[in-house]
Amino acid sequence: MRMIIVGGGQAGRSLARVLLERRHEVCLIEKRRERCVELANDLEAAIFPGDGTNVAVLEAAGARKADCVMAVTGVDQDNLVTAQLAQGHFGAKKVIARVNDPRNTETFHALGIQNVVSSTDLVVQLIEQEADAAQMHLIASLEQGKGEICSMTLPYDTAWENCALKDVAFPKGTLVISLIRGGELTIPHGGTVLHAGDELVAVAEEKSRKGLRKTLEATAT
Fold it and tell me: Which end of the chain is more exposed for a tag (fewer CB within 10 A), N or C?
């Protein structure tokens, strides 16, 4: 796939290296010429000196044929302009923009850029995951964090021992989709009886996850 990265800082350089290792075709746009020389010596990618907010530069880098354009500079305004050009003017198949200040995320969304990545938010998520009881883990985030798939293991002293799934008061917006017991996966139903050590996998809306964790913590007697 043809990938265009705008911004040759640490984030852009690392991203380019990973994509090259996965055998993608990478073009990297960087406005500082001295950094372009460093990038050219370090990466087997096409390096374009120039401003990624400039239509001519994006055109030269092949934005019209790009499978994905990623704006990852250290300036949110530049990332927004680049993403808007890639999406609206060049019709790139996929556009991803980095926000350095998570407070700008809603602005990006309001202006039509849906695939927004905040390194700050990612760090916070990691911290929150570590802060969760060891019994609960985030498996995947859905629709830019609007939903999550979580796994949770019932503690040895769970109050849910011998309870039917239908009798458990899960938070609204939560659906248990599988149960793993003794290494075997089954699809549970309302009459499924729970036991300590069961691993439940659930889909939860973003607003339901904290309630789900509190519900789990309350099962310990």
Answer: C
- Give the burial string for 74-109 (b: 16+ CB within 10 Å, else e): eebebbbbbbbbbbeebebeebbbbbeeeebbeebe
Could you give the CA distance from residue 120 to residue 118 in angstroms, rounded to a whole number?
5
For residue 40, the surrounding DSSP H or E stretch is: helix 33-42
Determine contact, residues 148/179, Cβ cutoff 8 Å: no
DSSP 86: I
Residue 159 has a CB neighbour count (10 Å cut-off) of 12
**What's the predicted TM-score (pTM) here?**
0.59
- 216 alpha carbon, distance to own chain's centre: 25
